[in-house]
Structure formats: C-alpha cells, structure tokens
Amino acid sequence: MTLCRVDGQPAASLGLADRGLAYGDGLFETMRVEQGRIALLEQHLQRLQDGCRRLLIPFERLQVQDEVTAFATELQQGVCKLILTRGDGQRGYGLPQPAMPRRILQGSPLPQWPLAHAQQGVRLFPCRTRLAIQPLLAGLKHLNRLEQVMARAEWQDDSYAEGMMLDTSGRIIEGVFSNIFFVRDGVLLTPELSGSGVAGIMRGQVLQLAGRLGLVVQVGDLYPDELDGMSEVFTCNSLYGIWPVLGYASHCWTAGPLTRRLQSLINRQDS
Prior knowledge:
CATH superfamily of the largest domain: D-amino Acid Aminotransferase, subunit A, domain 2
Distance between the termini: 23 Å
Helix content: 25-40%
Structural class: alpha+beta
Order of helices and strands: EEHEEHHEEHEHEEEEHEEEEH
Radius of gyration: 19 Å
CATH topology of the largest domain: D-amino Acid Aminotransferase, Chain A, domain 2
C-alpha cells in the first residue's frame, strides 16, 4: 500500500511555491516500520529537531510525533519517509517570515535487498564524485542529495551493493546511502563528520553499542591509503542494519568477528 500525507491530510501533490522543491530547503528522515511501530523513533525525531534548529526551521515535535505514529499504525510494515520543508515562500533566497513548515509523509514497501548482503557481505564501488566540505550542513540529512545522485549514477553493475565516498580533501566519509566503519588492531574506527556526510541513526546506535561493550572507538580522519591496515569493514543504515564489506577497489576483507558481533546485537535490538 502506498500512503501519502501532507500536513496531516491525504494528498498526492505539492504546491509549486514550496521551498523544498525550489531550494532543497528542508530535512528528511527515512524510518523502518515494523508491526505498526517506527524503529528508533526517538532518535529520528531528535536528529530532525537538531537539524531544524541548525537550519532555523520551526519544529513542532509533538505534532510531528503524533502524525508519524498514526501514519506508522496505518502503514503497518515498510518505510516511512518524513520530509519537513520550510514551507511556501516567494521568489528569492530570503527566509519567509513567519515560516510555515510543511510536513510530508510517504509510505512504501521495505527495499528487497538480497539476504547475501547481510549474510555474506558486499563490495563497494569507488565513487569519483566527491562530497563538498561545508560544516554548516555537515551531519544533517538535508534535502540536497545531488552528490549522492551523481555518485549512484556511476555504477550499474549489480556486483556492487554500495559505493564509498570521499570528500574534496580525499578523506573517507561514508557510503552513498550508508555510514561506514573499520576495524584496525581491535579498534573500531569511523570517519569524522564535522565537514560533510550524514550522521546516520544506525551509526549512532553502533557507536552507543560499542561504548556499552567497552570497545575502543576512534572517530577521526581516515584516508584510502590506510585501508591495507584494516582487518574488517562494514556499512550500516537504519533500514538494513549492518552489511560486512568484502571488497573495495583492490582491497579484500572477510566478515570478521567484531562485525558479526555488532550485527547480531543490532539485529536482536530490532527484533
């Protein structure tokens, strides 16, 4: 079943004056729905609230929470995508005063990824498209996704399930639609996202879980020439959980014990 709501009402279209359409002026969350409930709803709402604060978009948390919860109950199973735009505006970049944010909810089936992605692992495509460095937007799941669109257009080969993206300084940042982790000498590493990239909900869950397990975690700059020293690599997002990475360019890995341990614990949390 395909569902859509705009500002709490059934709708299948959007006004041409919406700033999300004109400028990508807004944020979004992509949430997994199981048995009428949204997984990690609190974390999604908190990220959205933080993003609205940074973009100066008014945010009515209780209103959004009530609408999303009711939408998930109706959807029951699948993906709930919440888009929050600044609302309508006149021509020009100046912020409308007052802003009247628009809430768009879309429901769709869960993606049907092969079980082998989680069970056996995936290969990553070496994307040529680089992520711009912009600290004002770093970490946000904002509507400007053209970098990811261009990166995903680089490969059609089904042997690649994801791509790895660097920033314009050559640092490893993330996958096209995932965050990425590495293991080196028993230490869990993930890229610093203060200049670009999305601070994913599942990334946050992995970091939190690693802390509870007493693992040594390092968040910092990582470069492709460090990959030879990595013993394990995995990607993650809130829809599929964790995928072990088997290959990237000339590098090869196996689905290692730390990846499997975290994957098992994440799956147990989701069940």
